[in-house]
Precorrin-8X methylmutase
Amino acid sequence: MDFHTEFKPLTVQPQEIEGKSFNMIDEEFGEHAFTKRQYKVVQRVVHASADFELGHSMLFHDEAIQAGINAIKRGEQVYADVQMILSGVSKGRIEKHGGSVNVYISDPDVMEEAKRLNTTRAIISVRKAIQQFDGGVFAIGNAPTALLELIRLIKEGYAKPSLVIGLPVGFVSAPESKEELAKLDVPFITNVGRKGGSTITVAALNAISLLAEKA
Amino acid sequence: MDFHTEFKPLTVQPQEIEGKSFNMIDEEFGEHAFTKRQYKVVQRVVHASADFELGHSMLFHDEAIQAGINAIKRGEQVYADVQMILSGVSKGRIEKHGGSVNVYISDPDVMEEAKRLNTTRAIISVRKAIQQFDGGVFAIGNAPTALLELIRLIKEGYAKPSLVIGLPVGFVSAPESKEELAKLDVPFITNVGRKGGSTITVAALNAISLLAEKA
């Protein structure tokens, strides 16, 4: 088969599309009280979702952006609750500083321990992360149980993450888990309500590593 | 570290959460004209996004659901435009019939060919899929260029997919690509507007394989 007979080279390059999209987002976003750097994260979230409501629902701890930049540049490890985040995130900007993105949810030891304790793999995988590294960026886009466990471990003094990106999507537990996160005095990026998910978490994480590149 | 001191076994099981979420979706969804089986797809899309607007924007070719079920049960191959879809989708219900989920975007031959022709890897990976298998389920959640190329190949008689799930997200090209898809008389699942993405595409694909299980 020769698919090339009708082939026309691209007239619009991907980077051009991204620039145009960001201009459209800026025009339509409306008023807000985000700082300039927080808005960079919000912009990517809207770019990944085409959802302005989600963009306006974003919530930042005052130190979140700087803490995230510092963590990436120090080469701290990144934890992600699900494989989709690992697949979607731009790993180069994290790895060049020595960090990597870690998902433990399908590790045999995590599965075994979850079964033994009659709990979720998400909870055990957070515990594994806490045992594997100090500080770190915790990116949770799927499992409210992972976020709730992380919050518990922070409160009890076991965990001291450099940044928590908590953006699980869902009708049950997800909104509540994000409310709990927003009460903590740790650097966090989260949002109000049910919306979120892996692609949104990837967008936030990518925005932070981009800011780290320019910082 | 002993994290188990405060450990409480789960009182709410994941399946219970899913059931509760689906009840909430049913209660809030409001009026619609979807068939019973189309609504199963819509319900999962809303579950994955917490976005009722997105749910109501879904669009189905009349034969889409049945064609998708048949394709899965015949063990046809599934193409996905990005790795996130492969990571997120429930593969067991596809693989048990002999199908598998295929992503070509990072294959060396695809990267080389895209460079040679000055085009996107997404376009070349769609062409590769067409050369690899007949029929098939095409799940596109990210790259409008992939969807537009598939539409072109269908129109020119090179491709005859059993089902096209076209749900790219974005401000530029994405809405237009989905409009073009909705004009074709091939089994499609898409939506109107900018919203969509990998998690939404995964939800639609999972819904179809679940329907295949019960058919």
The mean pLDDT of chain A is 94. The two ends of chain A are 49 Å apart (CA to CA). Chain A has one domain: 59-214. The first helix of chain A runs from residue 14 to 29.
